[in-house]
C-alpha cells in the first residue's frame, strides 16, 4: 500500500488541485460496485467519483474495451482480508483534498469543482465535523416582550435577575402567569444553572442559594461563600466560574451532590486576564479586557480548571453559553450575535451571525429560551 497523488484542474480554483488517494495495487474489494464507468485513463475514474457526493472509493481495472473500467463504491474497504487479488486492478480510497481547508471529516468528500466538502448523511458544517443531531440549539425571531425592570438576567430552570436597586427577582418562564417574584437579599449579579443559583453583591461577596429543588425552584436562603468576585456563572453540574476585580478567573472545586456549594475557588490559570465568563454545555467562554474572546478547553466537574485557553474570533462586551453549547454575545456596537456550528466535536463553532436588528446590553441562554435586554430597558424573550 502506498500514497498515489493525482493532479487535476478544477474550473472554480486557479492552478491545480492536489487530490490524494491511498492505492491498493493489484487489489479490488470484494463488494459490489454502485456503478461502473468506461474511461480512457485512471484519472477519469477519480474525477467521476469526486463529482458523486456519496462515492467513497473506486477501483480502476484494465480491460480490452476501455483504458480503465471504473468501479465506483459508496463505501470503503480497508481490510486486506476483504480484497480480491487482481493483477489488472488497483483500488483507491480517497483522502482529503488540499483545496478543502480544513479537510473533510467523517467520510466527507471534497468536491473537485467547488473545493467544498460533501458531507456524509447525518453530518454537517464546512468540514463535516458535527453530527447534525448534536448542533447547539439556536433561537431565532420572532421574539416577544415581557414585563420587568431589570439590569442583569440569567436564565436556567427559572429566570433570575437583579434590578437597578440590587433587588433580586425570579420568574418561571414555562408557566403562566409569568410574574417576577421578589427574592430576599441584595445582589449586583445573579446566575442560574445546573450547578445551582449563585450571586455576588455590591461588596463582591459571593452567595449560594440553598434549598433549591424541582419543587422549590427559588430555594430558601442565601449562604455566603469564601472569596470575592465581581461576576459569576453557573454552568453544567459541578462547574462554576467567576471573575474578580483584577480580572483573574476562578472556578469552584469539589462540587458534589452532597456538597453542592463545593470546597473552594481556585485560580484557573495565573497570568490570563478576563472580565467576563460563561460556562455552557461544551465548555467555558470568556471575554478579555480588550473585548477579544477565548474558550477554555477540557473543563469538567472533576477538573474545573480545564487545560488551556483558545483564542476565538470576535469582539464582545458580554456573552452567555447555554446547556446545549449555544453561545450568544453583545458586540461593542450593542448588536446581538450567535455562534454557529457548535457541537461536542467542534465546541468553538465556525462563525458569528447577527440574530436580529436592535441595540442590546445583556443576553442569557436558558434551557428552552433566550432573553436579551435592550438598551431601552425592554426584555426580549425568544422561545
Automatic annotation (TrEMBL):
InterPro entries: Beta-propeller_rpt_TECPR, Pan_app, Tectonin_beta-prop
Record keyword Transport present: no
Assigned protein family: Belongs to the tectonin family.
Keyword entries, A-Z: Lectin
A matching Pfam family: Tectonin
GO molecular function: carbohydrate binding
Entry keyword Nucleus: no
TM region(s), chain numbering: none
Name of the protein in its database record: Uncharacterized protein
Amino acid at each position: 500500500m502506498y500514497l498515489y497523488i493525482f493532479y487535476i484542474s478544477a474550473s472554480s480554483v486557479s492552478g491545480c488541485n492536489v487530490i490524494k488517494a491511498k492505492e491498493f495495487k493489484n487489489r479490488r474489494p470484494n463488494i459490489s460496485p454502485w456503478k461502473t464507468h468506461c474511461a480512457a485513463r485512471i484519472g477519469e475514474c477519480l474525477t467521476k467519483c469526486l463529482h458523486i457526493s456519496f462515492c467513497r472509493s473506486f477501483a480502476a481495472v484494465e480491460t480490452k474495451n476501455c483504458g480503465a473500467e471504473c468501479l465506483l463504491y459508496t463505501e470503503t474497504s480497508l481490510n486486506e482480508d476483504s480484497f480480491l487479488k487482481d493483477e489488472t486492478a488497483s483500488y483507491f480510497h480517497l483522502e482529503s483534498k488540499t483545496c478543502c481547508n480544513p479537510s473533510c471529516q467523517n467520510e466527507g468528500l471534497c468536491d473537485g469543482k467547488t473545493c467544498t466538502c460533501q458531507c456524509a448523511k447525518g453530518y454537517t458544517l464546512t468540514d463535516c465535523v458535527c453530527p447534525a443531531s448534536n448542533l447547539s440549539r439556536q433561537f431565532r425571531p420572532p421574539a416577544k416582550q415581557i414585563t420587568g425592570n431589570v439590569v442583569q438576567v440569567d436564565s436556567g430552570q427559572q429566570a433570575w435577575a437583579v434590578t437597578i436597586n440590587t433587588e433580586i427577582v425570579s420568574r418561571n418562564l414555562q408557566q403562566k402567569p409569568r410574574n417576577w417574584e421578589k427574592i430576599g437579599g441584595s445582589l449586583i449579579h445573579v446566575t442560574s444553572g445546573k450547578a445551582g443559583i449563585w450571586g455576588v453583591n455590591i461588596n463582591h461577596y459571593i452567595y449560594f442559594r440553598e434549598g433549591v429543588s424541582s419543587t422549590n425552584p427559588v430555594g430558601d436562603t442565601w449562604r455566603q461563600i469564601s472569596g470575592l468576585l465581581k461576576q459569576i456563572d453557573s454552568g453544567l453540574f459541578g462547574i462554576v466560574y467567576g471573575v474578580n476585580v483584577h480580572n483573574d478567573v476562578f472556578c469552584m472545586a469539589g462540587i458534589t451532590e452532597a456538597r453542592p456549594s463545593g470546597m473552594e475557588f481556585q485560580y484557573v490559570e495565573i497570568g490570563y486576564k478576563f472580565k467576563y465568563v460563561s460556562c455552557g454545555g461544551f465548555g467555558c467562554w470568556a471575554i478579555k479586557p480588550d473585548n477579544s474572546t477565548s474558550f477554555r478547553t477540557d473543563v469538567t466537574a472533576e477538573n474545573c480548571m480545564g487545560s488551556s485557553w483558545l483564542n476565538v474570533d470576535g469582539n464582545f462586551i458580554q456573552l452567555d453559553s447555554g446547556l446545549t453549547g449555544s453561545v450568544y454575545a453583545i458586540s461593542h456596537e450593542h448588536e446581538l450575535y450567535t455562534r454557529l456550528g457548535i457541537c461536542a466535536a467542534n465546541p468553538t463553532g465556525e462563525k458569528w451571525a447577527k440574530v436580529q436588528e436592535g441595540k442590546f446590553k445583556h443576553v442569557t441562554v436558558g434551557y428552552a429560551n433566550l432573553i436579551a435586554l435592550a438598551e431601552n430597558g425592554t426584555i426580549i424573550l425568544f422561545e
